[in-house]
Amino acid sequence: NIAMAAQMTDAHRRFLQVLMSHGIMEGSEARKLHRRCCEIHKVYYAHDKLDDFISTVNSHLQPLFMQIRKGMSEGDGRAHYALVNLAETEITKMASDYTENELELFRKTMDLIILSENGFASSTDILNLADQLKTKKMKKKEAEQVLKVFVEDKWLSERNGEYTLHTRCIIEMEQYILSNYQDVARKCNICHSLAIQSQVCESCGIGMHLPCVRKYFRAQTEPRCPQCNDFWSCDVP
To answer: Which interval of the chain is the signal sequence (predicted)?
Structure first.
């Protein structure tokens, strides 16, 4: 086997352990960690080789059906790295951490977010679902606590009483969402990743992440859709 993956070193193992304990890591943090792991274990370090370093880890994770994946924050467009379990859908993975009716609340929250216009669901709408759960009705106070835990565990993000999917959730659940919400889930026309918070072309219906919209239209005085060339009617953020 000539294409044998580059050797896993203690630097790679440490990187993986730290990432596992965080679940997700912002790009700049991952770059710092890469450097620190190489320095501690006296492994060759090159600042522009993080993706190669991660590829080495991934080739050794393959038999375990795990992978470090790169994604971006839909708010500011920053790169993030998350450890993803490929063997099971993330919802089944979550089952070991939450009760059945907590998971039902999460699924229903996900429905609201993905089916919404802007990729957000209000706490009012989510809490109204609490007493309609099939598994076991939940009091609003209890549901508020559960939402708090989902935010702490980086499955949801909250801003001024509005909830959206956390970057970690999007990276880990991309395949699950694309296959379970086939008619509504869309990929960004620019970066081709799943787009939850997006702007949509009124003429042809393609979606774009807000950071991708900003980048794409930066130099254009009259923004036009990259797909159909019609005038882009949304306000460029």
So the answer is: none
